[in-house]
Amino acid sequence: MIIDMHVHTRFSPCSVMRITQLLQSAKKKGLNGVCITDHDTTGSSSALRNIQDEYGVSVIVGIEYTTKQGDFLVFGPVEFIPKGSDAEGLLRWTEKEGCIAIPAHPFRKNRPSDMSILKSFGIIELLNGRNQPSENEACRVWIEQQGNGTRTIGGSDAHTTDELGRAVTIFEKDIFSSEDLIRELRYGRYAPRSMYRR
Questions:
Q1: Is a pLDDT exceeding 70 seen at residue 52?
Q2: Which end of the chain is more exposed for a tag (fewer CB within 10 A), N or C?
Q3: CA-based Rg of the chain, rounded to a whole angstrom?
Q4: What is the CATH number of domain 2-194?
Q5: Where are the domains of the chain?
Q6: pTM over 0.85, yes/no
């Protein structure tokens, strides 16, 4: 199952993509699923209620959570996530609530992750479709040298339909809900893949 794990819609201030545009483009590009990870909001949930099943694309609503130590993709009951946590507080909350937090674009020159907390997370975003190749490569090198079994995902970080699907995660099993996604992320039956060049 091909899923773009990191997508922004018009509910993020940085994106112009409407939900219908996202789903139409995802289907056209052969994606089986998308994770909507708008910045610090789950506003897209309301827009999905009546249209999600029309496109044959699995949609998981997560969040891209902003901290001073970096940005994190969070999956699970994210509508209850506390505001204003630092990375350590976010990690404690996700562990308590059965969620998963994943450092997003940890080696991006603009808004990188704090290296002192990176090893605390079992999964990181290795391939980011909006990163420079050198930034994704720096992440790959860190995984090889210091990752100690850290798993990796890919996501486009799309703000437009043109960017959608540039980097994805290939899952062995079908995913239709946040629970499915969290289960498969924990089992490790997936791999990141670059699909479209910049």
A1: no
A2: C
A3: 15
A4: 3.20.20.140
A5: 2-194
A6: yes
